Protein 1
Amino acid sequence: MAGRRAETTEANRTRLLAAARAAFAEHGYAGASMDELTAAAGLTRGALYHGFGDKRGLLAAVVAQIDGEMAARARAAAASARDDWDALLAEAAAYIEMALDPEVRRIVLLDGPAVLGDPSRWPSQNACLAETRDTVARLVAAGTMRAVDVEAAARLLSGAALNAALWVAASEAPDVALPRALDAYALMAEGLRAR
């Protein structure tokens, strides 16, 4: 009995996440109706409250889901790099470029911070920071990066990529802002590279 209830709860959660993701992408957080969203999932508001607490909790879950996908896409871009330095740059570039994806732009980079607060405090961002910290530690140990405080460098690099993506997403001309952000990020990172 408990197993079936857990399966139902998980199925409802999955349906609500999918409906919310579609609604938030199309209408934005403020414009997404909870009644329409739950109806699209074939569920009631009670299921939403049970699974996520409220609309804000549902947005947090959608943001975490998309942010996880963004991290996977960034890691995939880094995986094809020839070394850790190029991987660091490729991962950041891929993350910044995702600001052009309409779903990422609206849900994660515009509505997410407006509703959920500072993205650097989101659990999903902390996972990205940990990966950047590991890469920076390897680069410093290998002598590829200057002898710099690993934590400080990782936070600055990660924060720069996040803020570049936020800037591109909020820009009136994202296609114009993107190459500027990518160039500036690469130049900034280059300043940490050992000569």
Note: DSSP finds nine helices and no strands in the chain.
Protein 2
Amino acid sequence: MSTSDEDSRGALRSILPPEAVDRFLDTCNDHGWLLLGLGTVAAVSLPVLGLEAGYFMTVITEMFLFAILALSWDIVGGQTGYPSFGNMAFFGIGAYTTAILTKDFAFAFPVAFVLAGVAAVAIAAVIGAVVLRLRGHYFAIATLGVLLAAQQVSRILDITGGASGKILLQTPSGETFYFLFLAVLVVEMGVVYYLSSTRFGFVLNAIRDDEEKATAMGFNTTYYKTAAWMLAALFTGFAGGAYSLFNTFIDPQTAYNGAWNVELIAMALLGGSGTVAGPVIGAFGLHTIIEIVESYAVGWQLVLLGGAVIVTVIGFPNGVVGTLREYASEMDYYKHGGMAATNDDAEVSSDE
């Protein structure tokens, strides 16, 4: 370990529980990359093994999409502790950027897709300079205002098609979007997993736990918050940029979908916010349940979503991943003797 890494670890030990810092760093090894690689190979193999374009491919593609959105929200909401209600604003910006460039200016889709992410990041930098000065519920309300303002602007402007939206007929195949959303998700998971074991990731967690202490330790929290906000906007913009052509239609209601804005937060909480795997697991699980409800109990989707949020917050505040970690920690504790081991150690110390 380098001197700078050791210094960072030492500084973060003064903000976070020392044993948690050491355990987290020690467990961020090649196993996470191995699992990510195996999952990618499995997902890529599905079309090769016979998954054809149709209903099931569309559902899995949407799972990838929601996983991207949930993990992007978690960068700011879970890792940094700034619960945003406006992430769908960057989704809409990316969606309209691609739609306008491909239909009105004849840009090639790959170019428009990249520019969708760039546009989302640029606007996030401007908005972040204002809203990231706020904290708690003030920040949440401000981000919701950003979402509503972006939706209204899209209704007014002629270039966006106004309230009628834009119909996009010249679009790639469904299989193309399957691999595209998969690629974006894998890259995002890799980036977040890597950052979680670096100084950047630990400072974000320090901001979440106690921003004033993090500032007192000399960390420029504004820089880290803005970087996290822009990173989340980048991947959200990519998701929106691909979705407009995947859906072949975009309008203000679709681009800034309020129900999706709640869904992606519920997915992150359900799977376990503040983790890499949690939002992805939550997205896959909750979207599967929603698809089943839409097939057999149309109209109950929002009831299910509200119920999932309530049950998660009350019964599983740490989500699936957090609950499993707690259970594994307890099993490890009892495996090594539990309180008996602690008492034995205490007796030995007393005798000495």
Note: Confidence is low (pLDDT under 50) at residues 1-5.
Protein 3
Amino acid sequence: MFASLGPDDLALVAEVSHPRRFGAGEVVFREGDESNTCYVVRTGHARAVREHADGRQIALATFGPGDIFGELAMFDDERRSATVETIDAMEALAILGPDMRRVMLRRPQLAVALASSLARRLRATNERLASQSFQTVQSRVAGVIQQLVEQAVTEGASPEEVQITATQADLAMLAGSSRESASRFLATLERAGVISQGRGRLVVHDPDALRNYVY
């Protein structure tokens, strides 16, 4: 979100940023909480989750180093639309919404840059949701694994044997499928030698072959 900002604008953002640490499995904020802070991930991972009235959950997104979440707090104080919890120990930079709004009033061009970046993220989300609505469960699960592979490689993992920290339930939530359906497809991938599974993790042995399942 801040990639297009120049050094002067980045320095202003840095002035209102505060380091925060979270343990593995810790809730950063809950759906319905007051919204006054956004977070930039430095190390570790988190995920955004929404819960249905009947108790079912769906994972909306995962976040890794360089990602930002809770960014709407920079523009308004509406209540949180999802719960964000850490997957592993996480270090982040916290930016209070009121502080950021004061910075944007001083530098209107900064507000325009952030609004443009937010619009691009919203457009990408809409495209992803539209694409998923036409995909099979298998294709959605494969697509989620592929995204996690790309994220891991970006963070420095080997592009050939890529380990992902995620449970079958995590993958099912991200793909918007049942755990049973995701489990059956993962077993198919394992028999094909594309992945191998362990407790709370899986290793992708053939990322190229995985792409053949995404359509």
Note: The longest helix spans residues 108-133.
Protein 4
Amino acid sequence: MHVPQQAPARRPLILGSTSVYRRALLERLQIPFEVTAPEVDESPLPGETPARLAARLALAKAQAVAQRHPRAIVIGSDQVADLHGESLGKPGTHERARAQLQRMRGQWVHFHTAVAVVCIEADFAQTECAEVRVRFRAQADGLDDEAIERYLAAEPAYDCAGSARSEGLGIALLDCIESDDPTALVGLPLIRTCRLLRAAGLQLP
């Protein structure tokens, strides 16, 4: 009697991030996934550029979770704001957020958003990085200290690199956004994420 072979079980998908923004973005793909904290030191290395920092941390996060779940397909991601070559991290406090926004007024800021996909059992590890160019409104255009304070009182974006949530009220601080991957500024470039997931063998709708 012929016994049909069972299809191989689908690999679990894990998002190696505790970011609520990345989780919400990944949910758009309508595929089941788990969330695990990567627990990676995010300190930059001496002389490390913002783009290299984002790529290194995205891969490190994916690898850290993949070591604990070797059969799974793991996504890691990181974003670094780049002001004239200087890395700007998450402000964490009101004072630092205000200072960041004051410095970025009238400036082009580059947001490097990297995504890595790792599966140890399949010997797969790839990383891609999306760059988003953002121009902040100038002080002469109404982004004065009072406007910054009003924004932070309404939307304290202390957990966002660059101190502004483009998916929320922070869009009012911006003059222009340039990107080939629209969700990259929020924290996860979904076009690149889909490409890497397909390369790792995951079927998407």
Note: The mean pLDDT is 94.
